[in-house]
Amino acid sequence: MQETIDLIAHRELRSLRRFTRETGQPTRLADLDLEPMKSVASIEIDEEHITIQYNKSTTRHYNSNVTTQKEWVYKYNDDAEFTEAIRRVIELSRKHLYDMPENVACPPGCAECCSGYEPFVSAEDVQRIADHLKMTYDEVMRDYVVPRPSADNSYVGWLRKVSDDLADRCVFLMGSRSGRYYCGIYAARPHDCGAFTPIGCEDVDTSLPRGGAYKVGSPFRPKRSHRR
Ligand code: SF4
Ligand code: SF4
């Protein structure tokens, strides 16, 4: 399987290099063994076979050339289910590799997702936010949560917006504009926010640069009257 993933990874080599150059984030190219993928022309998968075709390659010796054209066929005779599983894994790897250069990390200060989505909060989330803000559980529920318990009781509601408009910003979002936004309770943010993946995100503000230094401002502070 590693071999197959390596073969696919070769296609993304240039994108990964560009990603590293633009963001300064390492993509560990040194860990990729690219040698087996140098001449891959195509990978085809049907119900019984995985066929990998290689381009013609020519090895030059000082007095002769040796030309080779290879085709590898892996055969899974009567295990269509296994082959189908492999096909899906490869598709997923491809998708993630395509997405990765653009979306492995959010451009600093984007936070488009902190508007338009309502992170659900569990009782643990509310307690963590309460401890962080030095408030009580009930005060956080009253000021920052729209109570709406889920049927299985895993959530107690979702975080409020700064206005009644659902598309408005999360009440904890700080910063004046895209590129300057930051979460005001980052260390205590709901599990939903921490688990939100940027892979495949279509809301990204594409005008933002991905590199450079980024400073966040002061953390969110509840109004004095809201504190215990
Ligand atoms: S890139 Fe997507 S996930 Fe990341 S901050 Fe922007 S909108 Fe949110
Ligand atoms: S809690 Fe923070 S990360 Fe979550 S939506 Fe609000 S501002 Fe964004």
Short recap of the structure:
This protein is α+β, with helices and mostly antiparallel strands.
Overview of the molecule:
The chain has helices at 2-11, 13-23, 80-103, 123-133, 137-144, 191-195; strands spanning 40-45, 49-54, 57-60, 65-68, 71-75, 120-121, 145-147, 157-159, 173-174, 182-183. It folds into 2 domains: 2-103, no CATH class; 112-226, no CATH class. With 228 residues, it is an alpha+beta fold. Strands 1-2-5 form a 3-stranded antiparallel sheet, with no helix packed on it. A 3-stranded antiparallel sheet has the order 6-8-7. The longest helix has 24 residues, at 80-103. One iron/sulfur cluster is lined by residues 106, 110-113, 196, 198, 201, 203-204.
- Tell me, briefly, the overall form: elongated
As for the number of domains, it is: 2
Number of strand elements? 10
Amino- and carboxy-terminal Cα gap: 57 Å
Helix proportion of residues, in percent? 25-40%
Give a list of the ligands: iron/sulfur cluster
Strand content: 15-25%
Major β-sheet strand ordering: 1-2-5
Secondary structural class: alpha+beta
Unreliable spans are none
Radius of gyration: 25 Å
Give, in order, the helices and strands. HHEEEEEHEHHEEEEH
Largest sheet: 3 strands, antiparallel
Mean pLDDT: 76
Number of helices: 6
